[in-house]
Amino acid sequence: MKPLARTSSSNDLTVFCNTYAAWRSDLMAAWMGWILTDRHGQEISRATASQLNVTSACMAEALAIREALINASTQHITHICLRTDSQVLARAITARRRPTELYGILSDIDSLTSSPFSPFTECSVVFIPRARNGPTDLLAKSCLANFIMGLRP
């Protein structure tokens, strides 16, 4: 099993992936966004997804990371640094702790990043302050806003 790094990589091949999830407890749903950039900060791609039956903000963020990893693997990215504004989740992933609520999602993330069959040669997860995650925050929240606007008569 490959180790999961705790710090960002300086490898020229590293792609940085900022993730964010907007969660609505009243709807039990999450809207997720992620932006992939190169080491110079140039955007490679961005994407969004939504998920129903999401029971917490932390679960929403874990789902965003899983979706971002799946998306990055389809783009044949081999070196990735995941950046999340959830300290709790960053610690859980790097320490390979799996709270009951997140067990399945964190197991998926672990398989995607650390198994012998992982598409990633190198993967790290780091915490970033929410203030440094603005574009990804806006992406996820605009996905939520579009959904809400679609509900209005």
UniProtKB/TrEMBL annotation:
InterPro entries, A to Z: RNase_H-like_dom_plant (IPR044730), RNase_H-like_EbsB-rel (IPR052929), RNaseH-like_sf (IPR012337), RNaseH_domain (IPR002156), RNaseH_sf (IPR036397)
Listed Gene3D superfamilies: Ribonuclease H-like superfamily/Ribonuclease H
Ranges for domain RNase H type-1: 19-143
An example molecular function term from Gene Ontology annotations: RNA-DNA hybrid ribonuclease activity
Protein name: RNase H type-1 domain-containing protein
